[in-house]
């Protein structure tokens, strides 16, 4: 079965996306999926399965794994223990190609990132020694997260003990041109979600007719383009709410919606609650009236 292409929502003011999940907020399963971003995952404890490419590998007491972009995989986490935490860090290839290359001192980190295309599984000692750095992410601002990631990558590149899951570079079953077009689509939505999204514009940009673009997108992601845009916008709305934005109308417009009732329906569809209920549960002590 071909993996679903997943869009990773990296903030425009950040080079990476960091999510921390506990036993009650496990990462929502994306099933068998693929994305162009690099992914570094550290799971504190518990047992689970690494299902990556053609390989399956069980782990028994948490795991630290680093995989390059465009490698099919399933979710890694588990719900064995109440104190378990899973930290997922994702960053685009531009992080390596555009940013790290300007610092020759980071050559070991660049080499480590390039090796991740073979998928690196680190030993338990490496995971345990770096866990204190991973669990700090949840309380950091964007600058702190970047510095912390570089510190982790520095330690991994110098002292990390790992095995390669694949002997050779993992190659996606997707054609490079298909992946390029999906990346452009994701980037277009990321840059224009707050505006009117034009299927005609993105289709023309990619060399499709509107109908052929919609068929292509559905084949690659297993969902319609409109559904993807709505889900992306709702994720942005949640992001805005979490940044202490408590005016629903303002968040609605900032995330690209114009109709309050449609915004409420889509929010409930993807968050299983209404915007007002979400705000009440998050800011019950701050909201007035």
TrEMBL record:
Keyword vocabulary terms for this entry: DNA-binding, Transcription, Transcription regulation
PROSITE patterns to which the protein is assigned, alphabetical: HTH_ARAC_FAMILY_2
GO molecular function, one term: DNA-binding transcription factor activity
Keyword DNA repair: no
Pfam name, any one: HTH_18
Domain annotation HTH araC/xylS-type: ranges: 183-281
Record SUPFAM superfamilies: Homeodomain-like, RmlC-like cupins
Protein name, entry field: Helix-turn-helix transcriptional regulator
